[in-house]
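Quick one: structure tokens for this chain, please?
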Amino acid sequence: MKFVYTSIAVAALSLSGCASIMTAEQQSINVTVSNGQSAEVTVDDKTITAPGMITVLRDGKDKVVKTKADGCDNVTVIKKSVSPIFFGNIVIGGLLGSTTDNATGKMWDYQESVQVNCATK
């Protein structure tokens, strides 16, 4: 019986922090422009020419796409949601695992694609 309890404890500890283990530290986001033109955009001090992919750190912080292109929205919010893996971790890893996932920011998923609204030229 002691072996069973020990096995359960070891399994619970090894599975804690599921999202932290199973989720990448960074996430790529596809940035497009509504008018089909290209525009220079910045997210977390990283700049690309959209349309294109930008990689952000999965840290749980709010992310915004900033642009200074004429006729385009200056700021476009990137929505985030709680990763489904996090909910499984609450059941399996309990408080320890969910706290780890929250502290690392890996409990969050950012939307995979975001469009900057720009006026048609």
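Residues 84-104 form the longest helix (21 residues).
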